[in-house]
Amino acid sequence: MVTAGFVLHTERDRAAAITLDLASWLLERGHDIRLPSHDAPRVGLEDHAVAEEHFAHGLDVAISLGGDGTMLRTVDMVAEHGIPVIGINVGQLGYLTEVDPDGARMAVKRFLSGAYEIEERMLLSVQIGGPEPTEHVALNEAVIEKTPSGHTVRLAVSVDGEFFTTYAADGLIVATPTGSTAYAFSARGPLVDPVLSALILTPVAAHSLFDRTLVLSPETRLSIEVVRDRPVKVTVDKTGMGILGEGDIVEVGQGERPVRFVRLHRRPFSKLLTDKFGLS
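Predicted structure:
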């Protein structure tokens, strides 16, 4: 018997319908299910609701139903516990999700039978300084950039404790290979196979001759300091983490453990790009 956790896009009816179908199917067969307390009322499963901070405890698999945003939310809740994640795409592009809605039940059956592989992907550890220091994990990226109404900011970058350079730019993106297809891609960063491990540092609209992306070893530790009295905002996987001022520092490195995705089919990175960008 397994305990399966569901995380769904609560504004998409199809995600709710698939969740209810899978949950009912599992319960009929003696398995346990749970949902974050915010999601459970959407599908009438309040009796199986748990607080987000307890969601991963004792879980065997997490099932994400939505788009990449829902997947990021799922990863944030379960990655540090090593829980494997099945991504069912009820969104649009779905870079992170593998399973189409029509294949949802079969995907769960294959997990229960052991007919799957685990693909591990690197996470970032992001430590944000300021009045109230915090630490976060990111699957895609950490972004330090000007506020919506702000001007170009100056950000001093140190690599493994050694000063590297100061960027005058709209911001800096530190991405994983998984995140290379997200914001970093729109800033003309490279596309990197997500099964690799690296830190990808991409400036956004840099006002200098040196505006190229750096692809660094996963063992690298980056320190980014605000060096001018202009506020910057920090986001981690699209979640706002607050505003920093002069002297505040963001440190980024490889996370302690990877996220674990359930894979039912081998999906080469080149095939993913062909499908998602319509290259064929």
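Summary: Residues 13-28 form the longest helix (16 residues).
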